[in-house]
Amino acid sequence: MVRFLKAGDKVKITIMFRGREQSRPELGLRLLNKLAEDVGEIGFVESSPKQDGRNMLMVLAPLRKRAAGDRPAEATEVETED
User: Fold this and answer.
1) What is the pTM of this model?
2) CB-based contacts of 37: which residues, under 8 Å, 6+ apart?
C-alpha cells in the first residue's frame, strides 16, 4: 500500500466481515483509522470508512502529486509569424 501511495496512486482498502464479525463493525472502523494514522505522512483519507453490507471501504490518496514524467504531455502552442 505504501508503495502505491509513494508512486502517486490511490489505494482502496476493503475489510470483509464474516460471521460474528458483522456484529462488531467498530473494530473494523478502529483498524481503518489506525491505518490512516500510520500512512498520514504519505497519504490522506479521501473517502472516510463506510459500511457497505458485509464490507467496510476506505480510499486513501497520496499527499504529493505524481512526478512530472508520469503526467501526459500537454499540447504546446507554437507561434508563427505571417
Assistant:
1) 0.72
2) none
